[in-house]
Amino acid sequence: MLKRIQPSTETIRKRSERLRSFRLLEPVAGPTMGGLEPGNSKTGTSGSKAATVLVWNLPAVVTCPGASQWCLSHCYNGDDRPTTYPVSLWQANWHDYEQRRGQLKMHISAQLLAAAPPAAVRLHSSGDFFSEDYIQFWTDICSHFCQVAFWAYTRSWVQPHLRPHLEELRRLGNVQLFASHDSSMPEPPTDWRVSHISTDRDAVLTRLVCPEQTNQTPNCASCGYCFQAPNERFQDVTFYEH
Fold first, then answer.
1. How far apart are alpha carbons 209 and 216 in whole angstroms?
2. How would you classify residue 35: left for phi > 0, otherwise alpha for psi between -120 and 50, otherwise beta?
3. Nearest Cα to 144, choosing from 105, 193, 177?
């Protein structure tokens, strides 16, 4: 049994409308510097593979230069659920990066130093790698905290000016970077791990389906598949549309 239902046509319509409005979002200062958040319901906050899971998010669409036509209408961050998808908080993250970059880096570093090991960080359950400097920001942090595992699914690989910088990031031994892909996109790079989107839940798939989605594990923190180095049998992952 899958944890999440497939979105209805009406849900997709509402998501599409809301996602279009995200193009107008701007960085907005928050009352305090937020930084990394505790893991969400999917990642978990702790488990058998990671004692601490933290997440970092930005507003969707406006920070997603590789967004496909499919995800611009289907992305779950378009759901109007403020407690689950606190867009204003993510706008503040964006502001902190743009206006207080040095302070933000120190704040995130302090959070990682305080995290119980082993720690893992999910980058961008909302948002994506939107510029060369932003990718370098995370490359600097990831290279400094080599004991922390970082993972992300990105569509920014389709942007030629960003691809070399993503290649540098994914070469780090503690980073697992997936080329996020759906059928409306060009073929992903052959030497990357790939995260596929499947809209057909009855299809026979040859790739591993996310164990959290299929209730084989309670969360990412107790799975570890995506933030640990791949083995010979499994590298890619499939997510059912939700």
1. 10
2. left
3. 105
DSSP string across 58-73: --TTTT-TT--TTHHH
207 and 193 in contact (C-beta within 8 Å)? no
What tens digit of pLDDT does each residue of 137-153 get?
Answer: 999 999 999 999 999 99
Q: Which residue, chain included where needed, has tokens 């930005």?
A: 58
Peptide bond into 164 cis (omega under 30): no
Q: Which residues pair with 55 in a beta bridge?
A: 37, 122
Question: How far apart (Å, rounded) are the C-alpha atoms in residues 90 and 78?
Answer: 14
pTM score, whole prediction: 0.96
Facing residues of 197 across strands? 239
Which residues lie across from 36 on neighbouring strands? none
For 156, which DSSP code? G
